[in-house]
Amino acid sequence: MSIYPLLLEPEDLQPLLHNADLLIIDQSSLEHYLTGHVPGAVHLDFKQLQLGEQPTPGALPPIEQLNHVFSELGLTADKHVIAYDDEGGGWAGRLIWALDMIGHSRYSYLNGGIHAWLQAGLETENNIKAIQPSNYVVTSLDSRFTLTKEQVLARLNDIDSGDFAIWDARSAAEYRGEKVFAARGGHIPGAVNYEWTLGMDSTRGLRINELTKFDDLLNSLGLTADKHIMTHCQTHHRSGFTYLVGKILGRNISAYAGSWSEWGNDANTPINTGSKP
Would you say 6 and 245 are in contact if contact means Cβ atoms under 8 Å apart? Predict the structure, then answer.
């Protein structure tokens, strides 16, 4: 079991920076990384963990590429990953989902990422950290943390029975079908909408909103701990944040990596429009 909490505050990470078991991964833009990053952090371009091909550009790439990416980062089984970014947790949460998928359960999220780190007045570096590559081998992907389009379709009836719920992390306009980034606009029938950026506090360095209130909010939306929750957005980037929040708040949560890019471009999938699920 990890000795580090899933949600780690900047002030709590600062005295741990020299711990040999930590691998700090920065998923900010390269420009922001070079301007200043958490001391010892290595940079990861988010595109390296995306398939980048239609109809599911947000899916994970082949296992061979995952082996290469994580080996180049120096990941080993005993390393504890500290994930952060420069946008409040979308890419960092998606990295944590990827770690779940490859079976690496040792990780934390730096609350608020680089914005919260700077707000706390903590030191940064602007050098590119030299990495000692490893030989990380992904043997399989863990299906517990993902759902395919076919699996979502098969579970739509479970929304009415109360066993299943869908958290749509896109904007309200996308959810209603007014803003369209696919052949069709709208939302998956039964899905509830809470845009990812509403879940972070801009006055506190993009830290996640106060957890007790956030938990109450999810309960009010029907995203309760007794249900299996699927979260998605357009390409499973924004839903990286909602996946992360779900884990922090003890939800049984999985991601639909195909997201609206796949669902909205399939003429045979059911779609609702408007503000009601």
Answer: no
Q: How much is the pLDDT for 74?
A: 97
- Residues 79, 151: one domain? no
Whether residues 186 and 248 share a domain: the answer is yes
Domain containing 32: what range?
Answer: 7-119
pLDDT at 129: 85
Tell me the pLDDT band of 1, cut-offs 50, 70 and 90: low
- Residue recorded with tokens 């078991």: 21
Q: Tell whether 178 and 101 lie within a shared domain.
A: no
- 82 and 11 in a common domain: yes
Active-site residue, 176 included: no
Positive or negative, the Cα torsion across 64, 65, 68, 71?
negative
Tell whether 215 is covered by a domain.
Answer: yes
Is there a domain that residue 165 lies in?
yes
Peptide bond into 55 cis (omega under 30): yes
Which of 51, 54, 62 lies closest to 262, judged by CA? 54
CATH number at residue 210: 3.40.250.10
User: In percent, how much of the chain has pLDDT > 90?
Assistant: 97
Residue type, 77: A
Q: CA-CA distance, 147 to 162, in Å (whole number)? A: 18
Count how many domains the chain has: 2
pLDDT reading at 220 higher than 60: yes
My answer on whether 178 and 224 are in the same domain is yes
Q: Alpha-carbon distance 253 to 123, whole Å?
A: 35
Selected catalytic residue, list 83, 233, 249, 255: 233
What HEC string does 130-198 produce?
CCCCCCCCCCCCCHHHECCHHHHHHHCHHHHHCCEEEEECCCHHHHHCCCCCCCCCCECCCCEECCHHH
Chain Cα centroid distance, residue 170: 13
